[in-house]
């Protein structure tokens, strides 16, 4: 089977150390890929970092294409700009706090090449301690929203809606078609991306991965979890720097996703309940984040 070209797009904001480690692993894997007939194409999109990310990439990895944004326009916008600067048949969009394990890029590339029905696929993600970090989900439902956005979820922690959404019954050691995959590391077929129009830039951060997987699914493509590819993901390397803002953005994205994909099919009482739940959860989360900040980090933020 002929090897199709692969591009990697890394979206960065103020995570220079993670970024250097991430790029080092990408280039090391590409150099050791026996099927690779040409150097891997890597694009780094920097969202107006204030640290030395740009200088370190330019110095350590001059072969990478570096796009420096003048202001942080969000993850989706950066992803679209990075993808547009690549030419591979397949594009892996990833966070800099993801460290790929040996052979994972080739595994994702080969899976897409051998499964023409796949619009996307994603690896198994691990926490830094080696434990599983669930990275695939079922599409959310109204019941999911109620349980995860209201006090009901606190009172009924083992409810079926949450279990179904989180796929707690799913054996994460085998490949399978799934609803959606974490955008921390997501391999996409360019033809599928072109068909659905790329990432929705209305999502500044969060939910853009659910949205694009849903739109791929609606367009007839499938999304696959591929545990033969693996990566360690240090969650929230960027978002933890501004917890209150990121908590707000998370809930704003939840609201946008609900309005875009579900609101039209729900009667007004259910719409009101969903919006009230998201708004209340947002207000509580932002208040907790600010209290955490003002208390000097002595109170754990649980989002």
How would you briefly describe this protein structure?
It contains eleven helices and twelve strands. The protein has helices at residues 16-32, 53-60, 75-84, 104-114, 142-149, 151-155, 160-166, 190-196, 208-218, 243-261, 268-294; strands spanning 6-12, 41-46, 65-68, 90-94, 98-100, 118-126, 132-133, 136-137, 176-178, 180-181, 185-189, 222-233.
What does this structure look like?
With 303 residues, the protein is of the alpha/beta class. It has two domains: 6-134 and 172-235, Spore Coat Polysaccharide Biosynthesis Protein SpsA, Chain A, CATH 3.90.550.10; 240-294. The chain is built from eleven helices and twelve strands. Strands 1, 2, 3, 4, 5, 6, 7, 9, 11 and 12 form a ten-stranded mixed β-sheet that branches. Helix 1 links the parallel strand 1 and strand 2. Helix 1 runs parallel beside helix 2, helix 5 (142-149) runs parallel beside helix 11 and helix 10 (243-261) runs antiparallel to helix 11. The radius of gyration is 19 Å and the shape is globular. It starts with 5 loop residues before the first strand and ends in a 9-residue tail after the last helix.
Keywords:
43% helix; 12 strands; two-stranded antiparallel sheet; 303 residues; Spore Coat Polysaccharide Biosynthesis Protein SpsA, Chain A; 20% strand; single chain; disordered C terminus; alpha/beta; 11 helices
């Amino acid at each position: 089977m002929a090897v199709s070209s692969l591009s990697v797009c890394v979206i960065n904001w103020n995570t220079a150390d993670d970024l250097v480690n991430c790029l080092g692993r990408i280039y090391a894997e590409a150099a050791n890929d026996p099927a690779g007939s040409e150097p891997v194409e890597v694009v780094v999109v920097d969202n107006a970092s204030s640290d030395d990310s740009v200088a370190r990439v330019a110095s350590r990895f001059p072969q990478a294409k570096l796009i420096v944004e003048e202001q942080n326009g969000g993850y989706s916008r950066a992803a679209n700009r990075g993808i547009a600067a690549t030419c591979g048949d397949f594009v892996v969009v990833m966070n800099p706090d993801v460290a790929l394990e040996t052979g994972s890029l080739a595994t994702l590339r080969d899976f897409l090449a051998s499964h023409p029905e796949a619009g996307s696929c994603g690896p198994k993600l691990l926490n830094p301690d080696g434990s599983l970090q669930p990275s695939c989900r079922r599409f959310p439902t109204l019941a999911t929203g109620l349980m995860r956005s209201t006090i009901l979820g606190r009172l009924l922690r083992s409810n079926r809606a949450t279990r179904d959404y989180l796929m707690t019954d799913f054996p994460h050691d085998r490949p399978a078609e799934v609803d959606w995959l974490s955008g921390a590391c997501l391999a996409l077929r360019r033809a599928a991306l072109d068909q659905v129009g790329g990432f929705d830039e209305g999502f500044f951060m969060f939910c853009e991965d659910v949205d694009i997987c849903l739109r791929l699914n609606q367009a007839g493509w499938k999304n696959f979890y591929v545990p033969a590819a693996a990566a360690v993901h240090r969650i929230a390397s960027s978002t933890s720097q501004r917890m209150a803002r990121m908590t707000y953005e998370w809930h704003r994205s939840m609201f946008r996703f609900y309005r875009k994909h579900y609101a039209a099919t729900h009667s007004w009482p259910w719409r009101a309940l969903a919006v009230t739940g998201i708004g209340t959860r947002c207000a509580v989360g932002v208040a907790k984040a600010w209290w955490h900040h003002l208390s000097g980090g002595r109170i754990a933020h649980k989002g």
